[in-house]
User: Which sequence fits this backbone?
């Protein structure tokens, strides 16, 4: 498979034109006009910004001979950008721009703003600098495929009958025929493994069990000292329903509240950028709910907590911060301006955001112990907890 990885890095486009080492079969349309493609699952796992960068790379390669400014787009003329837009015109609408990190948007997409439709350009800028903007452009759903939507089979068990000589040498023809579309009713994907999973990509099963023990203990007592509680049970008693994954659903507060409001008790898990194996998060037993923009309210609870985990040493290096005895009235902050927020809003005790840096410094509403300060989010998940 090393040859495949080398080919992936050297020429993304060629992988859309070859069936060697394929592990996914995609069928588009209905018989007798059904089209079939043999592709590589790693392509389907590309993040949106990776797809965009490869698309730009492919487009620039096709106009190298006609551009006046060369490789550096700072030297490009209006005609150069028009040439690139013409090449990518039918592909740009297929990119999920609203699922891209704001940092990546600024670094990799914004420099090519001239090739984007004017309305889309305006929508993207407003979307990334405000928390309440509703785009006019069509917002495609995140590229997620639930495991139960994928028919598991091996390529050897799947019979492919070539009914017509369909041209697959063009990246345009393949993408346009809905290889990446998750909405096409006539699109079927057969894979030898489930590419995507609704299991946590951040929390291990051991970490989930530890968090459950903390939750179970908080139900027995209104207050517990700030030290790691090692629960007696090793069996999970709650069902963890994944409501939201930022890398799937988008990082805006609007997307968070669309997926997570009015869902009851939740656990959030945040993967900190450049901090492998370190997870920060919290337990909200009352849930979040929608407010008018700009409003801030609080949900009182004595059972919520903030945690900091070290997946390499859960028992010795994890920290639990429960609500202080006399501070439970401001335990959970309800605001549409941010994603999940714990504690008194003005104290920045714990909130998650991509518009500005996230922040965690307990000690006001919650017990002291987690002092990360400002940090960047790599990804975060929200789970609804349902007691079995």
Assistant:
């Amino acid at each position: 498979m090393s040859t495949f990885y080398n080919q992936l890095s050297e020429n993304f486009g060629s992988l859309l034109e070859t069936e060697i080492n394929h592990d996914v079969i995609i069928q588009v349309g209905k018989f007798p006009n059904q089209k079939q493609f043999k592709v590589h699952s790693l392509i389907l796992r590309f993040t949106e910004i990776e797809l965009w960068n490869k698309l730009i790379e492919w487009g620039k390669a096709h106009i190298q001979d006609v551009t006046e400014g060369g490789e550096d787009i700072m030297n490009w003329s209006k005609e150069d950008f028009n040439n690139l837009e013409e090449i990518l015109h039918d592909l740009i609408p297929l990119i999920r721009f609203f699922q891209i990190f704001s940092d990546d948007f600024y670094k990799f997409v914004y420099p090519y703003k001239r090739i984007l439709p004017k309305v889309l350009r305006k929508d993207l800028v407003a979307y990334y600098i405000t928390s309440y903007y509703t785009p006019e452009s069509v917002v495609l759903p995140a590229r997620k495929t639930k495991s139960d939507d994928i028919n598991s089979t091996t390529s050897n068990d799947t019979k492919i009958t070539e009914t017509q000589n369909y041209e697959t040498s063009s990246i345009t023809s393949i993408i346009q025929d809905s290889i990446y579309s998750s909405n096409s009713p006539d699109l079927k994907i057969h894979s030898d493994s489930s590419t995507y999973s609704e299991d946590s990509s951040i929390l291990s099963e051991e970490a989930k069990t530890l968090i459950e023990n903390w939750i179970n203990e908080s139900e027995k007592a209104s207050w517990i000292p700030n030290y790691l509680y090692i629960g007696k049970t090793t069996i999970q008693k709650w069902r963890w329903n994944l409501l939201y994954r930022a890398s799937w659903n988008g990082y805006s507060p609007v997307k968070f509240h669309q997926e997570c409001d009015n869902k009851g008790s939740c656990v959030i898990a945040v993967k900190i950028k450049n901090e492998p194996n370190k997870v920060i998060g919290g337990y909200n037993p009352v849930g979040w709910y929608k407010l008018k923009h700009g409003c801030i309210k609080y949900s009182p609870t004595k059972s919520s907590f903030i945690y900091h985990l070290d997946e390499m040493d859960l028992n010795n290096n994890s920290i639990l911060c429960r609500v202080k005895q006399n501070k439970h009235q401001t335990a959970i902050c309800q605001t549409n301006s941010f994603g999940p927020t714990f504690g008194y809003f003005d104290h920045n005790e714990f909130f998650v955001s991509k518009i500005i840096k996230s922040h965690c410094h307990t000690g006001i509403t919650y017990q002291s112990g987690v002092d990360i300060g400002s940090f960047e989010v790599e990804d975060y998940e929200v789970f609804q907890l349902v007691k079995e």
User: Anything to note?
Assistant: The chain has two domains: 2-191, 205-387. The CA atoms of residues 95 and 349 lie 36 Å apart. The radius of gyration is 24 Å. The longest strand covers residues 377-387.
